[in-house]
Design a protein that fits this description.
Layout (H helix, E strand, L loop, with lengths): L4 E2 L9 H9 L19 H18 L5 E6 L2 H13 L5 E6 L2 H10 L4 E7 L23 E3 L2 E2 L4 E2 L11 E4 L16 E5 L10 E6 L16 H6 L9 H16 L2 H21 L4 E2 L11 E6 L5 H10 L2 E2 L10 E4 L6 H18 L1
Parallel strand pairs: 1-13, 3-4, 3-5, 5-8, 8-9
Antiparallel strand pairs: 2-10, 6-7, 9-10, 11-12, 12-14
Bound molecules: pyridoxal-5'-phosphate (PLP).
Length: 360
């Protein structure tokens, strides 16, 4: 069987050139005589791989020098706890925007450690849009403001970066990081699980402004303390070495593919193509307000849900896989991260047209 177009929300597709390079380097990385997965994380070969990956990520995102980049484990979900533990401080209060399934989880976890103020929520509208800046009732005493720029399950993406004046803005970028350029200086902290747009599962990236380090609550587990991780170059214990290496290969691929400006152009084209196909038909529907539609995750439903199983079965036969929507939303979801080629989106659009012609 040929490689398929995999529309999974995560773990997701990796760029084929990255997989080929990893295969070439599998048995012996350069002249080390071993696979990267077999190397000591403190040896000079792995240290070079790790440093190169960080330097490339800094270049791609133009990360200012007063930010630390941490390569951690535990997924974005571990950060739901690490963030309040590190940032709440003595005031114990934080503002959260409730815009979908992932922000709800972040809120529930933060409530274990402090007072969470939900300063905007679109839950009453079934999470079909991002709230506007005017709707954010930010508190003067919050230690930080947390939001989810791209809600992976609902397919809702903020078309702007919330303005929070002096309060640090914390962003769960798991499903949107590296999809377009961002201005890192607008954030206090950015975090992302790797398995959507960075690399394989098992790696979590945290980009944190230096002045936010050293505030962890005394009960914070050592492993979750950003200060400890920063002081140890993310090697307080054994880091996820192979995932870090593969992420580095993805960063090199991004640099060779036109950087984030180039990615943004391609991603916008892919998303526009798919939304036009959905909007141009009475058979397919996407419920999200157009200005808040995600470039990365495109949920859609069929006019007749009884056809869902047939759609998925025939799509799979056409090498278009993992299109089933999240169990909480139903229908379909096409995740079209950086590694999904434009031909994959074209193939999906043709399949959808053909399906509608036969069943619509
Ligand atoms: C996938 C995802 C998560 C959870 O990531 P894990 O690494 O599995 O913990 C959290 N937030 C967002 C926005 C996601 O897309």
């Amino acid at each position: 069987m040929a490689r398929v177009y995999n529309f999974s929300a995560g773990p997701a597709m990796l760029p084929e050139p990255v997989l080929i390079r990893a295969r070439e380097e599998m048995l012996e990385w350069r002249d080390s005589g071993m696979c990267v997965a077999e190397m000591s994380h403190r040896g000079k070969d792995f240290m070079a791989i790790a440093a190169r990956a960080e330097a490339d990520l800094r270049e791609l995102l133009k990360i200012p020098a007063n930010y630390k980049v941490l390569f951690l484990q535990g997924g974005a979900s571990m950060q739901f706890a690490a963030i309040p533990l590190n940032l709440l401080g003595s005031g114990g209060k934080a503002d959260y925007l409730n815009t979908g399934s992932w922000s709800k989880k972040a809120i529930a976890e933060a409530r274990r450690y402090g007072q969470v103020q939900v300063v905007a929520s679109t839950e009453g509208e079934r999470f079909t849009r991002a709230p506007t800046q005017d709707e954010l009732a930010l508190s003067p005493d919050a230690a930080y403001v947390h939001y989810t720029p791209n809600e992976t399950i609902e397919g809702v993406e903020f078309p702007y970066v919330p303005e929070t004046s002096d309060t640090p803005l914390v962003a769960d970028m798991s499903s949107t990081i590296l999809s377009r350029p961002i201005e890192v200086a607008r954030y206090g902290l950015i975090y992302a699980g790797a398995q959507k747009n960075i690399g394989p599962a098992g790696l979590t990236i945290v980009i944190v402004r230096e002045d936010l380090l050293g505030r962890a609550l005394p009960s914070t587990p050592t492993m979750l303390d950003y200060r400890v991780q920063a002081d140890n170059d993310s090697m307080y214990n054994t880091p996820p070495t192979y995932a870090w290496y593969l992420a580095g290969l993805v960063f090199e691929w991004l640099k060779e593919s036109g950087g984030l400006d180039g990615m943004a152009r391609v991603n916008e084209r892919k998303a526009t193509r798919l939304y036009q196909a959905i909007d141009g038909s009475d058979f397919f529907n996407n419920p999200v307000e157009p200005a808040s539609r995600s470039w990365m995750n495109v949920p859609f439903t069929l006019a007749d849900p009884a056809l869902d199983e047939t759609f998925l079965k025939e799509a799979k036969a056409a090498n278009l896989t993992t299109l089933k929507g999240h169990r909480s939303v139903g229908g379909m979801r096409a995740s079209i991260y950086n590694a999904m080629p434009e031909e994959g989106v074209e193939a999906l659009v043709s399949f959808m047209r053909d399906f509608e012609r036969r069943y619509g």
